[in-house]
């Protein structure tokens, strides 16, 4: 009996080692890609952030935290950080608030349901750069702008400075971001809604629950995993946004719609200031990590509360 047990334990250990080695072999290419494309460049970025590296000369000097001090002393860069956070938070909240009711509506049975679903999904198919160019023409502050033409025809009002006034420009960028993302995320929520058992709703109806009570007690808890995924994607995309504000407003008026990614590209590449660009990149990475971790912690707490 003891020899049989020992043999079984040896086979068990051998099988476990084989499985571990196999898993490690599959993970090696992923780890290699991570090290080459992220870890090494990020380490170089941290190093350059403490030097006066211009991006061209190999003769660099250590400057300590001087680059970080310049970043935080530059009002344009701070304005870019503020708008990036505003855009990420606003688009995440607004898309989530709009996408869930839209998904519930698209989950109902009506004539042409598949066609309507396709229309909302394809709103997000064009790239953000193309959408920025199209909406730049629509929001043009000139009298010939599409929206200004409609406003003048219906109300006889003067041209509105949609992209020439700071608050309006920020609102326009956020609006286009929400307009482009609602359909895709509604489709994501729709996929989760279709997996919710109909028996739960039928039992709630028998108990006399109304539509709002069914949403709070059944739909919302069932959508928590999807909300976590959707908001995570929205926050990460919003924090690294570049193409939409750049094509729509070029970061203007002034620096009202400037983003951190645009500042990194301009400072680090266009102006040959790799030192400031590296410092910005480090700050950006730390900020993204902090926001994402806070978001995940909040989502886990919400999931525990509603489950």
UniProtKB/TrEMBL annotation:
Specify one Pfam family: BPD_transp_1
Please report the stretch or stretches of sequence annotated as the ABC transmembrane type-1 domain.
81-297
Q: Report the InterPro entries cross-referenced here.
A: ABC_transporter_permease (IPR051393), MetI-like (IPR000515), MetI-like_sf (IPR035906)
Query: What is the topology of this protein in the membrane according to its UniProt annotation?
Result: Multi-pass membrane protein
| Entry-linked SUPFAM superfamilies | MetI-like
Q: Which Gene3D superfamilies match?
A: MetI-like
Question: Which cell locations does it reside in?
Answer: Cell membrane
- Keywords recorded for this protein, A-Z: Cell membrane, Membrane, Transmembrane, Transmembrane helix, Transport
Record field: transmembrane: 21-50, 85-106, 118-139, 171-195, 215-239, 276-298
Membership in a protein family: Belongs to the binding-protein-dependent transport system permease family.
Protein's name in the database: ABC transporter permease
């Amino acid at each position: 009996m003891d020899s049989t047990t020992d043999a079984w334990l040896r086979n068990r250990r051998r099988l476990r080692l084989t499985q571990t080695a196999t898993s490690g072999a599959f993970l090696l290419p992923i780890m290699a890609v991570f090290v080459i494309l992220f870890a090494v460049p990020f380490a170089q970025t941290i190093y350059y952030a403490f030097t006066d590296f211009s991006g061209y000369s190999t003769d660099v000097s250590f400057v300590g935290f001087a680059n970080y001090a310049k970043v935080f002393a530059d009002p344009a860069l701070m304005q870019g950080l503020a708008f990036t956070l505003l855009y990420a938070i606003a688009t995440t909240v607004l898309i989530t608030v709009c996408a869930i009711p839209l998904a519930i509506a698209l989950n109902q049975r009506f004539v042409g349901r598949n066609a309507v679903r396709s229309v909302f999904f394809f709103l997000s198919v064009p790239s953000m750069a193309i959408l920025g160019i199209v909406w730049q023409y629509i929001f043009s502050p000139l009298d010939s702008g599409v929206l200004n033409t409609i406003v003048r025809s219906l109300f006889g009002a003067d041209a509105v400075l949609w992209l020439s006034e700071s608050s309006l420009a920020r609102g326009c960028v956020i609006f286009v971001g929400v307009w482009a993302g609602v359909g895709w995320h509604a489709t994501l929520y729709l996929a989760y809604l279709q997996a919710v058992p109909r028996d739960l709703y039928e039992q709630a109806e028998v108990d006399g629950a109304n539509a709002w009570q069914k949403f709070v007690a059944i739909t919302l808890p069932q959508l928590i995993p999807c909300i976590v995924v959707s908001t995570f994607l929205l926050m990460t995309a919003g924090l690294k946004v570049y193409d939409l504000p750049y094509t729509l407003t070029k970061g203007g008026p002034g620096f009202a719609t400037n983003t951190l990614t645009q500042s990194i590209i301009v400072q680090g590449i266009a102006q040959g200031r790799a030192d400031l660009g590296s410092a910005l990149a480090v700050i950006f990475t730390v900020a993204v990590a902090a926001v994402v971790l806070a978001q995940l912690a909040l989502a886990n707490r919400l999931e525990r509360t509603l489950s």
